[in-house]
């Protein structure tokens, strides 16, 4: 597929990465100031809330990170008292993850902050139609990358 707009795919990539970095950093700042967590912790807590009984491998797959990095992330959540590991009755080699009551309360409170910040950062710039078109384009790209397991770390 060939693109004809000025700059083409390299500029699209650059804009995508720079927007992601700036949004991520802004969300980090807001979440840290209000809740003492960072975006990656919020995303992990939100995933555990939405996927009860997830395993470390499930977190790794969702966030396209290695198993070791996902396990260390869960270790940090456990140390804060926001998540726990329970033995997996169907596979002794893995654990099932769950939010603690504190983790469940935190993800609700931080979720409000996260949504407010995104509304300011994205909604204040893009109209609903543009945001929907961008979301659809990114969802299509993400689905293709995930289907082909592109960029999936080993281990």
TrEMBL record:
Q: Which residues form the HTH marR-type domain?
A: 9-150
Q: Which domain of life is it from?
A: Bacteria
Q: Which GO BP terms sit in this record?
A: response to stress
Gene3D superfamilies hit by this protein: Winged helix-like DNA-binding domain superfamily/Winged helix DNA-binding domain
What Gene Ontology molecular-function terms does this entry list? DNA-binding transcription factor activity
| Record's protein name | MarR family transcriptional regulator
Species, as recorded: Actinomadura montaniterrae
Origin organism lineage: Bacteria, Bacillati, Actinomycetota, Actinomycetes, Streptosporangiales
